[in-house]
Amino acid sequence: MLATTPGPVSPRRAPARTRAALPLSDATLPAIAARVPVPTYDRTALVPAVVHIGVGSFHRAHQALYLDELAAAGDTGWGVVGVGLRSTEMGEVLSGQDGLYTLVERGPDGERARVVGSLVDYLHAPEDPQAVLGRLADPRTRLVTLTVTGGGYFVDDQGAFTADDPDVQQDLADPQRPSTVVGFLVEALARRRDTGTGPFTVLSCDNLPDSGRSARTAVVSFARLRDAALADWIDTHVTFPSSMVDRITPQTSPEERDAFERTYGVADRWPVLSEPFRQWVVEDDFCAGRPPLDRVGVQFVDDVTPHKRVKTRLLNGGHCALGYLGTLAGHTASDEATADPVIGGYLERLLVEEIGPLLPVVEGMELPGYCDSLMARFANPAIADPLARLCRRGSTKMPSYLLPSLREAREQGRPHGLLVLAVAAWLRYLRGTDLQGRPLQVQDAHAERLGELARQGGDDPRPLLGERSVFGRLGDDEELVAEIGETLAALSRDGVAATVAACLMNPLEETR
């Protein structure tokens, strides 16, 4: 099922250079309303029932927007308290704007802007951990949502909690001053249990294969290191639904911020840009009351697994392939790379012919149509994503989004040459130079180690594929290793276009 932002997309307005920009705040909302839509509900009536940990552009373009629309629909019982774990900048911006920010949705035919008002407070955890714990323990808090990336859960590829992590050990030593998500959640839940307040729901919105299970494993495992009875109470009373989230939300550059101010006459220090499309599918498993988000387009299901698999394998896996191969072909942005007939043709066939047939059937979703919509979204020039952003954290993304498709294709004897090409492009990218020898900035937690192995092996992928923490047992598949090596050599020898053409002409297929 596809869900999009309701309402038409208006053409972009001409820059309003003759009027002074209004600073964004509660006090200026009446004047700003003449320029862009603003919240029509009473923000003072918002109940701080949701704590979101990890406020960034995606949360503000997605979950916070849905809750803003819920308030506009008449239910002000689900206001959001944002929590930041690292940088102070987001808090400085939101505090100076009374929690308000603008969202600009850009489609191929134009854009529209609106002010979002669902954030009622923002706390920076390192500065005041007690304030964060107080909010989490507050009886009004009924739901905690998370966008902290996979590393924030301290759960390894085998699903085990990494209790020896230094941050985890520090939180165990001083539970009153936590620094990790699990430390905050467990201490807050301990306080709620001791005071009889009761549990809250923990809803992960991160792109993990089973984000709910990861959250449960992290929280219960950490609690068990502190107090077995507390861990049992959490395991029994707290629910950890998984969800699937989808919306392309590139970073906002200073130039985009300044252009927004000129266009709309509103001075927002950190507006959010996104595509018109959005989707949120959530498992219906709430222990402290469920926000009626189905009123504003959220889909509640018994099991989000098939929805998440389709989305992560196609969109996130497609982004990985587009990022690495597009970069090696000399492109810098997603729309530019998708418009390239070589890269765009490759990506479409990768999604439809090799990844799509491996996916489960999802009620209400027609897979070819979904793939068509993805290609249109990737090609959207109004919301172009830098390929450098798509290439970040490959050692986390590839094992989660693309390598599983390659593994399953091999197991099922299905064509997999285009998947092999995506892997080969990543391995080539890890050397830190493009095909012309120009330097690339590899942004990855394991960039030094993987780069060393990539340069050591050259067109021989075995040194890299031997890294089981990233590739699992793929390196034990001698035929696959040979196929990746041949494709790596073809990229080095023939370049992207010729290698893509050869892969499209001669799909690899296991016959056993």
TrEMBL record:
GO terms for molecular function: mannitol-1-phosphate 5-dehydrogenase activity. It is an enzyme of class 1 (oxidoreductase). Gene3D superfamilies: N-(1-d-carboxylethyl)-l-norvaline Dehydrogenase, domain 2, NAD(P)-binding Rossmann-like Domain. Keywords: NAD, Oxidoreductase. Its EC number is 1.1.1.17. It comes from Goekera deserti. Residues 49-294 form the Mannitol dehydrogenase N-terminal domain. SUPFAM superfamilies: 6-phosphogluconate dehydrogenase C-terminal domain-like (SSF48179), NAD(P)-binding Rossmann-fold domains (SSF51735). Residues 303-491 form the Mannitol dehydrogenase C-terminal domain. It catalyses: D-mannitol 1-phosphate + NAD(+) = beta-D-fructose 6-phosphate + NADH + H(+). This is Mannitol-1-phosphate 5-dehydrogenase. GO terms for biological process: mannitol metabolic process. Belongs to the mannitol dehydrogenase family. InterPro entries: 6-PGluconate_DH-like_C_sf (IPR008927), 6PGD_dom2 (IPR013328), Mannitol_DH (IPR000669), Mannitol_DH/Oxidoreductase (IPR050988), Mannitol_DH_C (IPR013118), Mannitol_DH_CS (IPR023027), Mannitol_DH_N (IPR013131), NAD(P)-bd_dom_sf (IPR036291). The keyword Transmembrane helix does not apply. The lineage of its organism: Bacteria, Bacillati, Actinomycetota, Actinomycetes, Geodermatophilales. It comes from the Bacteria.
